[in-house]
Amino acid sequence: MQRILVPLIFGLAGIAVLVGLGTWQVQRLEWKRGLLADIDARIAADPQALPADPDAGDDRYLPVRVTGRIGADGPLRVLVSQKQVGAGYRLISALETDQGRVLLDRGFVRVADAIPPAPGDTVTVTGNLHWPDDRNSATPENDVAGNTWFARDLDQMAGVLGTRPLLIVARSVSPADQGVTPLPVDSSGIPNDHLEYAITWYSLALIWAVMTGYFLWRNRRPKTTG
């Protein structure tokens, strides 16, 4: 009996743990979907004036509308890639506002295209405040001297352009910033892998159950003697 009972308990315990982990990931999936829906709603809300002292936690993705002049210095070129378009740059310029100079992510140009000059007139920018997290362990250091950036490091960019370390990612610019395609903030870059994790844990639970059943079947078979 012990030959059956011990592996049965072990097998059931393993199945319970794996199913529990899968169920936890399903719960995390629903939580993440709700979080992303809240972020999307926040991004698309009516724009407001630029806060005097924005906070990276409370004001992330805050929609704003700002009037000013895009600085002629720069722009800083952040290397990115667009699906079905290829490699290009995000253009980061200074934006002169009534509240000082801030960073403006104007949008995308292809690597092969010439960098268009900034509009000379006063512009109205509608966009979102953002504190991007572009850097990971594989991200190269920014080539400041060669003006090729691999991450939007706000403090470093602000030091080069003489602005506050505050970034507005443009959704639209009026009059239009000719030759530049805005890359507005959205939630697509926020990972949501919980469904894949749940499938993995449930699959492991199924495999564990099959292996447990096979092991019990083998132990129940009468031993034959030669």
UniProtKB/TrEMBL annotation:
<dbReference type="InterPro" id="IPR002994">
    <property type="entry name" value="Surf1/Shy1"/>
</dbReference>
<keyword id="KW-1003">Cell membrane</keyword>
<protein>
    <recommendedName>
        <fullName>SURF1-like protein</fullName>
    </recommendedName>
</protein>
<keyword id="KW-0472">Membrane</keyword>
<dbReference type="GO" id="GO:0005886">
    <property type="term" value="C:plasma membrane"/>
</dbReference>
<comment type="similarity">
    <text>Belongs to the SURF1 family.</text>
</comment>
<feature type="transmembrane region" description="Helical">
    <location>
        <begin position="199"/>
        <end position="217"/>
    </location>
</feature>
<dbReference type="Pfam" id="PF02104">
    <property type="entry name" value="SURF1"/>
</dbReference>
<keyword id="KW-0812">Transmembrane</keyword>
<dbReference type="InterPro" id="IPR045214">
    <property type="entry name" value="Surf1/Surf4"/>
</dbReference>
<keyword id="KW-1133">Transmembrane helix</keyword>
